[in-house]
Amino acid sequence: MNQKEIEDLLNKMTIEEKIGQMVQIAGDIFLSEDTNSMLTGPLKDLHLSNEKLYQIGSVLNIVGAERVKKVQDEYLSKSRLKIPLLFMGDIINGYKIAFPIPIAQGCSWNTKTIKEMTEISAMESSIAGANVNFSPMVDLSRDARWGRVMESIGGEDPYLGEVYAKTMVKAYQGKNLSETGKLASCVKHIAAYGAVEAGRDYNTVDMSEREFRQYYLPAYKAAIEAGAEMLMTSFNIINGVPSTVNRWLIQKIIREELGFKGIIISDYGAIEETIAHGYSANEKEAAKNAIYAGVDIDLMSSIYANHLKTLCLEDKEIENKVNESVLRILTLKNKLGLFENPYGNLDEEKEKIYLMNPINLEKAKQLTQETFVLLKNRNHSLPLQKNKKIALIGPYIDNIGITGSWSMFSDKSKNSTILDVFKEKIGNQVLYAKGCEILRQGEFNKILSADGLPLIQVKNEEQKEEELITSAVETAKNADVILLALGEHYRQTGEACSRSTISLPENQIQLINKLSELSKPMILILFNGRPIELNTIEEKLDAILEVWFPGTTGAKAIVEMLLGEQNPSGKLTMSFPQNVGQCPVYYNHYNTGRPHNNNLRYVSRYQDIPTESFYPFGYGLSYCNFKYTELYLNKRKINENETIIVTVKIENQSEYAGHEVVQLYIQDLYGSVVRPVKELKAFKKEYFKPHEVKYVEFYIDIEMLKFWNEKLEFVAESGEFKVFVGGDSVNVLEDKFELIMSL
Ligand code: BGC
After folding, report:
1. Do the strands 543-546 and 373-377 form a parallel or antiparallel pair, or are they unpaired?
2. pLDDT tens, residue by residue, 483-518
3. 565/579 Cα distance (integer angstroms)
4. How far, in Å, from the CA of 217 to the mean position of ligand 1?
5. Helix 303-314 and helix 316-335: axis angle, to 10°?
6. pLDDT of 208-257, one tens digit each?
7. 483 and 433, same structural domain?
8. Does 251 lie in the same domain as 154?
9. Are 49 and 173 within one domain?
């Protein structure tokens, strides 16, 4: 359709039909034999009549060619104007193939890797009928207590957030949305959701505008500049006003300043929640606040469906806003080609051969390997030496549940376990004992009760626990090396999974302590969705491989890495705290007037723990040993039109080939507002042959030196800067230069 035809269609619509386009519900209702009974059943809380049902504009989380076609056909058969539904979903870390969770993907520090994962995910889900994906989540995340850090692609760094946001939006959308394998990207959650107080989900966010613009906004901005078709609001308030009805945020920043022309959807029920926030007095006012702020689609509440019509009759301005919203929605449907073919890029034939195909599974395994972070490797305990007996111990050894909390669509039939893969490769060298459950039942029951689910009672839990530990110790006695697979339960991470303790579960720590009495080399493979507190157990472990929730091909990827067929190259995107009391801890903080020094008294520090993080941002080891020397700047004074070339010599002092993420940080030593101690400004992932020496080059230009100054202008100021280059944010070489602005 051309623009004129879309406008003509808009003019044919009744006010009810227009409002319907602005409502999204779960699509299951259309799959029911009897929609009437569904309306008195599952959807009764939404107060939607049968008539309104066939006017809605989009549905949530229906994917799969057959299901999508059925829903679309049923809907179109009864809808007057036959405007196709949009199918939106949470295909967060893949559709049928589950890739590593987003925080893990970010640890690859490789945009090519992230692009490839996103493209496979886009192809799999769009041929299965998805039109819009609620991804990426680009909320800057500094607090490990927050369960949703697992979804954050850039972790605690605004620059990584920017780079990855751009990569993912482009990979989902391509050049043309009606191309095979493409779908619209809905970037979330605007805004600053990651800054919820005390890491408690949905909690208050209060921050200065400068802080917001400097650290939180860049990733959303990058996504908009990359052409994201949609944005989702966040559940939190920002400076007193819920994001979903925040006119400053949506109108001034997102629409006016950043020029966003696409659709804004509320988060799940978020318009209605503005009542509980104490902002809207009632449902009608909530509808008015949201439409005035500029929310186009009400996700899973009946506020728009039940109140917009009255509001339109009372206020011409609201009717205009409804027309604008509907035009945006029709425009997206048109870009997806739905008016020509209501199934869009859905392709049943392709679905049969493409989903879970062996080529993609092999690719997925390679990509997954880039997301692992080697946190410790005392005495080169990894890779495992040949011909040693290995005791495989822990609840994640014989477990296919390693796809993470958003992997509801993934096909688990191809997941293998670490045990399966070891048996296949070196069956005669491995012994196995479970050692413990992931969580004690009491702990798991807390999660079930928070979800309103019935609790599970177990008999003789203590006795069983004893038996599991005893058998693990006996098994370990017969081995040369102990390989532990431990971590969080996947239901301890994700939405509504904030935790006030971020250590491993107590029963797992008990297992580690018991096994450490054997004084055998002990290696930990860590499954988790957030930085974990490791300080009490780290000494007992010789090596730690962080694998997050690695997805469908995780087990194969892990075993190959442990055996030295692959070499770890991931780097952390979130600092690991010494303990939970240090949260939020992040590398790009400001100095105080009394910068920390662990040996002085009246300085900014803790009495009981070091001030530094346990593992810093950017950190990750390799089987290679990389040595950085000869940091060189070709100029030490520049004006705003000049560029500095920075070079560094890196030598791979090992027999292994591998990748290193070379990182460049800058510190602006003084300014009209204080600046962080370090900020990541560039990185390169380089491949090294054994013993290879390389000179790696970066450019520093004025854009890297800009910040939101005292007057809230984005500018660079004359002054001195430090440059740091290294393999993480702490172990760096440094030098200095001066910027002299000629204006
Ligand atoms: C989450 C979103 C998600 C939406 C739709 C909400 O609860 O916050 O991230 O996209 O549900 O499922």
Report:
1. antiparallel
2. 999 999 999 999 999 999 999 999 999 999 999 999
3. 34
4. 20
5. 130
6. 999 999 999 999 999 999 999 999 999 999 999 999 999 999 999 999 99
7. yes
8. yes
9. yes
Task: Tell me: do 417 and 288 sit in the same domain.
Answer: no
Give residue-wise pLDDT tens across range 660-671: 999 999 999 999
The binding-site residues of ligand 1, defined as CB within 6 angstroms of any ligand atom, are: 90, 134, 188, 267-268, 495
Question: How many residues comprise the chain?
Answer: 743
Would 499 be classed as within a structural domain? yes
- Beta 132-133 vs 481-487: how paired, if at all? unpaired
- The tokens for 22 are 């602005």
CB 153 within 8 A of CB 137: yes
Do 415 and 314 share a structural domain?
A: no
If pLDDT is split at 50, 70 and 90, which confidence band does 458 have?
A: confident
pTM: 0.97
- 564 neighbors 608 (Cβ within 8 angstroms): no
CA distances from 438 to 324, 332, 435, 487 (A): 51, 44, 10, 7
Percentage of residues in the chain having pLDDT higher than 70: 98
Longest Cα–Cα distance of the chain, Å, equals 80
CB 149 within 8 Å of CB 529:
yes
Tell me, what's the pLDDT at 45? 66
Domain count, the chain: 3
Instruction: Indicate the pLDDT class of residue 175, thresholds 50, 70 and 90.
Output: very high
**Among 232, 297, 226, 289, which Cα is nearest to 56's?**
297
Atom of ligand 1 nearest to the CA of 299: 5
Residues 169 and 23 in one domain: yes
- Domain membership flag for residue 599: no
Q: How far is the CA of 268 from the centre of ligand 1 (A)?
A: 6
Q: Are strands 58-60 and 86-89 parallel, antiparallel or unpaired?
A: parallel
The answer, yes or no, to whether residue 393 has pLDDT greater than 80, is yes
Ligand 1: nearest atom to the Cα of 137: 9
Q: How many CB atoms lie within 10 A of CB 64?
A: 21
Report the residue among 86, 92, 134, 493 best suited for mutation to probe ligand 1: largest number of ligand atoms under 8 A from its CB. Answer: 134
CA dist., res. 665 & res. 650, Å (int):
17
